[in-house]
């Protein structure tokens, strides 16, 4: 990266601000050399410059001006180190000013002050120990100039006292400039580090606010929205213009904001979004002494859903414990009912015994389903080849339920494999296919089972489709709710348990629609397919 190039924090081991300071120092040199050249060109006799040797002053000022142009233009192109470049430029400054001082009659001409400016500038720009070297270099130059003057023109030796005082000023200026430069660079480094920390903090804060589930808005006293996150637009159902006011987001929210500005206390209000009908809770808080107001928008539907999930989780644990306690006496009732059936009783007693047994079995199924739901987190996943698994499962289902195997039409890709707990998959398919068989027409192939790989994502889709009447419009949003059923002898837990078991295995169970019968789809991981794909990439 070239010296002095903006945009880079460091260049050639130096902060870019140092190269910028050197750039300004070159501008100063160009201006001073131009003034000297113009003064000797237009006012050779009245300026007092070159009083002892006008020709030497003129050639020196011309050479100094040309070197100043060179240093200014070549700063970004010179490929030497910073210290070497600065030393070269300071040496040229000292030599040129000393020659012009000699041509103008020595330190009495006032040009010696320019050496103090050079040393001060070099100390601020260089920020190192070389400032003392520059002071020593200027001291040697001034003393040599004074010595040459004594030898050539017989100047008074007492002038060495003034030259010595001037040289002391050189070192004082260099030391002061160095100490000041050290403080400046320390403050600059602290400011730079704090700027980096602040930028990082702002970046983190912006990312957190952008990814928040709640909407956040910053509104000034003139009702202009200064900042907002995407969730605020999503909750309010609007697309904000370039410089929005709060009314462009929501007129109701703007009214609540005006009430808050008049009261000046923290305020919580609820509002309903037009169109979607979503209920939001808005909280207004002052943002310090700036006069801005923070508005937090929360989706009450999401809060209620979270509360419902917590209640369902607690209810599930309670239900599982109750089911476990019920199972033992229920087994005793079922056993007693079987014993009663074996005795020779009247037809009425046999019917009562059959009623007891049927209801006991129904309770047993309900208890089994609840306990199975309680064990959803104990998943032992494995890669299951769907072709062989589904064929064996359908044979078992047909034999157990005493139905015809031809009711099911199976279409499975050869390499379709689902990463799933085998017991859980068996339970899920049992619930889905039992429902499909119950509501289908009963014709051969009335229930279709299709499995295929999604090549782009490494997942597998498993479809269960029947040719029945499908899911009713009023039941579409309730079919996955616990204990919801349209069948007189159902428990209402089949689809709910199936969906929970799918989620426990990183899969999704969803109702796709009616075709015209119910169409359910399971989307799960095909780990074996992904491993084969990764192995193929590694071989390539």
Q: What is the first-to-last residue Cα distance?
A: 38 Å
Largest pleated sheet: 5 strands, antiparallel
Kindly state the mean pLDDT as a whole number? Answer: 78
From the spread of the alpha carbons, the general shape counts as: elongated
Number of helices: 15
Structural category: alpha+beta
> Roughly what percent helix?
55-70%
Order of strands across the widest beta sheet?
4-3-7-6-5
Total individual domains: 4
Backbone CA Rg: 45 Å
Topology as a string of helices (H) and strands (E): EEHHHHHHEEHHHEEEHHEHEEHEEHEEH
Low-confidence stretches: 1-12
Number of strands: 14
Strand content: 5-15%
What would your notes on this structure say?
With 540 residues, this protein is of the alpha+beta class. It folds into four domains: 10-194, no CATH class; 211-301, Beta-Lactamase, CATH 3.30.450; 303-374, Helix Hairpins, CATH 1.10.287; 381-534, Heat Shock Protein 90 (2-Layer Sandwich), CATH 3.30.565. The protein is built from 15 helices and 14 strands. The protein has helices at residues 16-42, 54-73, 82-103, 112-126, 130-153, 159-211, 230-236, 246-249, 251-263, 300-342, 347-374, 386-401, 422-439, 494-504, 527-539, and strands spanning 10-11, 14-15, 215-219, 225-228, 267-272, 279-286, 293-299, 381-385, 408-412, 417-421, 447-454, 459-466, 508-514, 518-525. It has a five-stranded antiparallel β-sheet. A five-stranded mixed β-sheet has the order 9-11-12-14-13. Strand 6 and strand 7 (293-299) form a beta hairpin. Helix 1 runs antiparallel to helix 4 (112-126) and helix 10 runs antiparallel to helix 11 (347-374). Residues 1-12 have low confidence and may be disordered.
């Amino acid at each position: 990266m070239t010296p002095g190039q903006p945009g880079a924090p460091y260049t050639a081991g130096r902060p870019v601000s140092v190269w910028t300071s050197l750039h300004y120092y070159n501008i100063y040199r160009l201006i001073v050399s131009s003034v000297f050249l113009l003064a000797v060109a237009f006012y050779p006799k009245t300026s007092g410059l070159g009083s002892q040797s006008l020709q030497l002053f003129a050639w020196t000022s011309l050479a100094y001006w040309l070197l100043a142009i060179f240093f200014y233009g070549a700063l970004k192109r010179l490929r030497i180190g910073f210290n070497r470049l600065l030393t070269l430029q300071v040496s040229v400054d000292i030599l040129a000013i000393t020659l012009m001082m000699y041509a103008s009659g020595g330190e009495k001409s006032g040009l010696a002050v320019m050496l103090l400016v050079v040393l001060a500038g070099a100390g601020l720009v260089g920020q190192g120990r070389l400032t003392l070297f520059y002071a020593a270099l200027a001291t040697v130059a001034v003393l040599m100039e004074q010595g040459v003057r004594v030898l050539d023109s017989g100047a008074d030796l007492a002038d060495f006292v003034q030259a010595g005082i001037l040289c002391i000023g050189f070192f004082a200026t260099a030391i002061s400039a160095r100490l000041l430069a050290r403080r400046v660079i320390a403050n600059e480094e602290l400011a730079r580090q704090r700027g980096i920390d602040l930028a990082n903090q702002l970046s983190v804060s912006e990312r957190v606010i952008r990814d928040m589930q709640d909407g956040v808005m910053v509104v000034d006293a003139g009702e202009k929205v200064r900042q907002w996150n995407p969730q605020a637009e999503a909750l309010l159902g609007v697309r904000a213009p370039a410089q929005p006011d709060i009314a462009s987001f929501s007129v109701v929210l703007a009214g609540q904001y005006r009430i808050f500005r008049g009261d000046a206390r923290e305020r919580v209000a609820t509002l309903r979004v037009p169109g979607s009908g979503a209920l939001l809770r808005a909280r207004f808080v002052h943002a310090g002494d700036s006069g801005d107001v923070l508005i937090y928008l929360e989706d009450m539907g999401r809060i209620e859903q979270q509360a419902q999930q917590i209640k369902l989780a607690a209810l599930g644990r309670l239900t599982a414990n109750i089911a476990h306690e019920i199972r033992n006496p229920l087994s005793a009732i079922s056993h007693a009912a079987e014993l009663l059936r074996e005795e020779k009783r009247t037809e009425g007693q046999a019917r009562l015994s059959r009623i007891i047994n049927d209801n006991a079995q129904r309770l047993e199924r309900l208890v089994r389903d609840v306990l199975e739901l309680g064990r959803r987190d104990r998943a032992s996943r494995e890669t299951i080849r769907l072709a062989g698994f589904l064929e064996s499962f359908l044979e078992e289902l047909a034999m157990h339920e005493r139905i015809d195997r031809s009711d099911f039409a199976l279409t499975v890709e050869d390499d379709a494999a689902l990463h799933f707990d085998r017991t859980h998959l068996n339970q899920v398919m049992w619930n889905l296919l039992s429902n499909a068989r119950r509501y289908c027409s009963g014709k051969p192939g009335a229930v279709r089972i299709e499995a295929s790989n999604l090549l782009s994502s490494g997942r597998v889709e498993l479809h269960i489709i029947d040719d029945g009447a499908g899911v009713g419009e009023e039941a579409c949003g309730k079919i996955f709710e616990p204990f919801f059923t349209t069948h007189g002898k159902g428990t209402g837990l089949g689809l709910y348990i199936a969906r929970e078991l799918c989620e426990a295995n990183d899969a999704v169970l969803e109702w796709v629609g009616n075709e015209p019968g119910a169409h359910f789809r399971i989307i799960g991981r095909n780990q074996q397919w992904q491993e084969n794909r990764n192995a193929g990439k590694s071989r390539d």
